[in-house]
Amino acid sequence: MTGETRPRKRDATATRAAILASAREVFARSGYDGAGLREIAAGAGVTAMLVRRYFGDKERLFAEAIAAANSAPIIATQSVLKGEHPGAAIAEALVQLTAPGAKPLDGFLILLNSASSVRAAQIGRKVIESAPQKTVAALLEGENVEQRAALILSLVAGFQMMRQAIGLGALADSDPRVLEDLLTPLFERLVKES
Amino acid sequence: MTGETRPRKRDATATRAAILASAREVFARSGYDGAGLREIAAGAGVTAMLVRRYFGDKERLFAEAIAAANSAPIIATQSVLKGEHPGAAIAEALVQLTAPGAKPLDGFLILLNSASSVRAAQIGRKVIESAPQKTVAALLEGENVEQRAALILSLVAGFQMMRQAIGLGALADSDPRVLEDLLTPLFERLVKES
DNA sequence: CAGGAAAGTCTACAGCCGTAGAGTTATAGG
DNA sequence: CCTATAACTCTACGGCTGTAGACTTTCCTG
């Protein structure tokens, strides 16, 4: 699904990147347990054994996929939090990125869909504590920055799950403006020191 | 794990209830795909074939388990929302029910851990829209009640995922009072008309 | 242009899954 | 006490999973 149809010349780094991209997509859609190595491989136009060859085992691949998936959104979060009205900016970005037809925000979606797998949850906890939470917390001021950062991520993840994974009608079919207006004061409250 | 060790007399309704209880537990822990019929059966001191005999197929069992799991928390939610300070009451209940050692709130946990399974997500959406969201929405006043109800559920689910399923340190190891104080204004804002 | 290393594939193996129907055992009613 | 019926189990199938090592093809270098 990554678009490559021609056989692609033998290029280790490009193949590796293609596998990683496919892994992010499949893990985001099906979760850790639901994703099959053969399916990921097919998405990159490759066999499952090559995946093993590049990433060792499934856990290793998952850890890399989740790390890669989280790097991009974090950069966005960073710039958003530095603005004038961070709460509104987060709300707008979140509503826009989780729009029904939009390409899933794989960063959290991977974690979210993999929470039921014990191994995946452990890996996910380490990744999320070392990257997104830390980054958000660094931009907050006042007391309980870690807890507030964790709650921001909780709201983002919960909203994303209900809107994208579950597809709750009240969130998926509503006017985005309404959702933004409801979310803004919540984020605002968490960003500003309590 | 439901405690029954003796063979239990042949009692169809009791056996059915035992299977359902085991199903809630296993689905909550492992999600739809991760849960095995044999594991659920073993938890009820029974074979997998009997599960099939009582509930038809896995989808049917899942639908019943999720419906049963949601009925209890909804009743609690109802009484909580009728009180004087509903936001604080929800926050307190949520923090208490998701405490690290506590028995999981299987209602949302089942959905949450099963979101990656397409079939489970569809079943889950129907169940959640027909029961919890509807119930919460019915207790709200003002505009956008459906959206606000959905956001309440999103925050509850996200918090639960980050605290119980992922085990984020900032939420799992913090003073419950701090978490309650941070969550209260968020719920308060969603409960009262915007 | 040849050779060797790197890139990629083939076949296979246990182990689990949901499903299926035939077979067995305990319980209740006459 | 005996029997009919409901409750329950046994064995098995096909399909999927992650993993494994041996094999083949392509490309770069000398």
List keywords for this structure.
homodimer; 194 residues; mainly alpha; Tetracycline Repressor, domain 2; disordered N terminus; DNA-binding
Report on the architecture of this protein.
The structure is a homodimer of 194-residue chains. The first copy, chain A, is mainly α. Chain A has a domain at 58-191: Tetracycline Repressor, domain 2. Chain A contains eleven helices and no strands. The first copy, chain A, has helices at 12-34, 37-43, 48-55, 58-81, 86-97, 106-114, 118-130, 132-138, 145-165, 169-172, 176-191. In chain A, helix 1 packs across helix 6 (106-114) and helix 2 (37-43) packs across helix 3 (48-55). Chain A is globular, with a radius of gyration of 18 Å. The model of chain A is unreliable at 1-6 (pLDDT under 50). The interface between A and B is large, with 53 and 53 residues. The structure holds a DNA duplex (30 and 30 nucleotides).
